[in-house]
Amino acid sequence: MDSQPVADLEVAILGAGMSGLCMAIQLQRAGIRDFVVLEKSAGIGGTWWDNRYPGAQVDVPAPAYSFSFAPNPHWTHRFADAHEIQAYQQRLVEQHGLLPHIRLGRAVVEAGFDAEAGRWRLRLDDGSALSARFFVCSTGPLSRPRWPDIAGLAEFRGHLLHSARWPADADLAGRRVGVIGTGSSAAQLVPAIAPTAARLTVFQRTPNWILPRLDRRYGRLDRWLTRLPPYAALARQAWVQLLELGRRGFDEGTLARRLMTRTAAAHLRRQVADPALRARLTPTYPLGCKRIIYSNDYYRALALPRSGLVTAPIQAVTAGGVRTADGHEHELDALVCATGFDTVRPLAGLRITGLGGQTLDQAWHAGPSAYLGLTVPGFPNLFLTLGPNTGTGHTSTLLFIEPQVAHVLACMRRVRREGRRWIVVRADVFAAQDAALQQRLAGSVWSHCSSWYRDGNGRIFAIWPGFTAEYVKAVRRPDPAAYELG
Ligand code: NAP
Question: What is the pTM (predicted TM-score) of this model?
Fold first, then answer.
């Protein structure tokens, strides 16, 4: 891949994950070929490049986890694993000829808007620089691993791992392994590690709601049918609609909510025979507040003879393992932190300066927020994909990416068509939309517990509260009156 610094471009995209690739493909389709995709990792895929721990899978049915314009006849299961998804992304890159546009192993460290020229000036970690009229940050909310703030972590002499930075050569077979965390990542990696570990100890701070995972293998017929565009479109749409029904499960008093809560309780009863263990695995917060987990084997892995669940709070990590508040020393050879991501500061490490010298950190002093998750007042020609309040707990994130990309393209086209230098969201329009959103989120199911959807002050900054269709409608075509041009 080209290692020369590039000069003046039309668009710079940050991140070669799902949303960055979608942006690149649609730019090309729109006839804009003067763009670069800058990716800090050594490979393509974003979260699917980073999250390659054993058992990593998506929990959305694969037909809905494919772009509408790129059905994938290669899925082997309804729930695709990380390798299959990364291979899908790799194929997208090849089929759309994106390779010459992608610079791997390049992080942007500084981006400043030059209002005079109407261009973003970027500085990269290798000292090179480039400028681009439009800057699209497609880094997603789950790109920066969060290590737990536990005393002594650095003292641990065994193998210390994070689920989101799994080394390809990690071998935990025959080892005494500890796992901190019980979120989606832990629920997938625990069953993958448990059968071969000498001993597996899961340190649980909060139990989670778990629903069965209705997986099935895709056979030759499925794959043949998916090659027929009308079938692929129909199958995708059927899943989209079914998942949309699940959104009701987040509203109190709905039939969907009752069904989901009862199913989760029955799942726990069926899979965990020991009433004491069952009690420790029963959540004390309402279903949906944290991300719901879909698993058929997590509970079973905990019930294996060589597995143990520890609910006493962790006091410290020591050279030889973990000490819990009950005074117990858990001796470990390896400690896995499945402790999630720093979602509160999604673009930390990158200084972004907009109009009047204001940095994005300053604009976000009260937490990340953006107009429809996409644009920030004072930051012209800057776009975020999968930005604040565009996360979803019930459906495929790809359904949010496609309209976001359409919105960004429409804004770019307008600047070009009208011969202007920049476009920026109006501060009053943003403020009104953000206030309405926060009002809607107050008292919602997501306000009843702590999670990566909320910051330290309890503000819910990561999740979209409504149905997907509502978001798509609001975003696909930008309201011309919401933006100012310069
Ligand atoms: P997470 O949901 O944020 O879970 C982190 C876990 O670590 C929680 O159980 C948390 O406990 C625990 N933890 C954090 N700090 C701790 C500490 N100091 N001491 C003890 N426990 C601590 O992270 P994740 O599991 O990586 O998942 C993040 C998101 O990634 C998911 O919600 C999902 O959106 C996505 N994901 C999706 C899939 C998929 O199947 N599609 C798979 C993996 C991840 P508390 O709950 O008490 O804070």
Answer: 0.96
